[in-house]
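note to self: dont lose this again. the chain is below, predicted strucutre after it. 404 aa total, dont forget to put it in the shared folder this time
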Amino acid sequence: MLEMTAVAARRTAVAAQGFADPHPAGSTTRRHVLRTVDRTALLQIDSVSVAVRAHYMPVFSRIGAYDREVLDAAAWRHSARAPRALVEYWAHEAALIPVDDWPLMRWRMQRYSGGRWAGERRVLERNPTLGRDILDVITAVGAASAGEIEKHLRIEPSGGRGPWWGRSDVKVVCEQLFAVGELSVDRRVAFSRYYDLAERVLPADVLAARIDEEDAVRELLRRSARALGIATAADLRDYYRLSADQTKPAVADLVDEGTLVPTTVRGWKDPAYLYAGTSIPRRARGTALLCPFDPLVFYRPRTERIFGFRYRLEIYTPAHKRVHGYYVFPFLMGGELVARVDLKADRAKDALCVPGAFAEEGVESGAVAEALAVELRAMANWLGLSDVVVGERGDLAPKLTAQL
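---
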């Protein structure tokens, strides 16, 4: 049984996510962007845009300023010179995954055949022919949004009940067809999904691939382990939202083949697994702002275990009850989470606004403010904003204001 310290485990986890990789000037081409996505295995998608869309930020956190159009093209455009490299599906929530990984989700598509959730099942039951009608429209007209499909079906666009089905029902059934793999997302316009037949979005060999659930789960765990570096069984499961029943035999198989190395991490309550060949850095590296859905921190129990950083998103908390703010970014410095900042991109003010900035207990706040100021300026420049404006909330705010 391998044994390592909690500090070594933290360094390993940060390095596995690509934060210790060298990125020379100019390393923001499509190849570098996709290499970064290969490190994380997926990019979670979220609709909140108060600062920047969630799927863009992890790439910036790892390689610095890059053209977001590069990522858009990789996910939502296809050409002979630059084939589609990423595709949307339900991985860790809604996510972009490599196109070649889509067949690994077929077992999940089969499980969703009756609806992903109870409300969706009720919509399917009361509209038994709507799915076929939607597929007929898309077959005839090509990629379309739910709203465009409603127009073709002559459904009232009021948001209430139309002559056949309600507006929300069309969107729900489009999502169901996406969940079962009949539709995929061809592109996004103003962040709205444009659905198309999966056979017109995905390469024929990817569409034809069949992988049974047992093999698929094993491969997904292999990807989780590689992206995490060092992980408990719960960490491995969460990356692709797998169940304990699914993963228990798969973990045993990966241990037997030598992919996972059973490891005791001092201070961790549960056994851990090191991905074979993972680098265990001798010193801490990695400085970056992390969006709430960054793969390094999106599983909150792991974040607390590794970094001693209790992190909760407060979007749905009433404003007067929020502790740190609406959309708070953890700040990674030297491989440790040392602060958190509430961020908002205010286009009207041409500024990246920081309503609140908070240092973690025991850190040297002057050094944190200095490093954080650099990262905030870099993020503002990347977003095309000319200024960084710090508010008054938080113990770190005065020193951060002074640095800026």
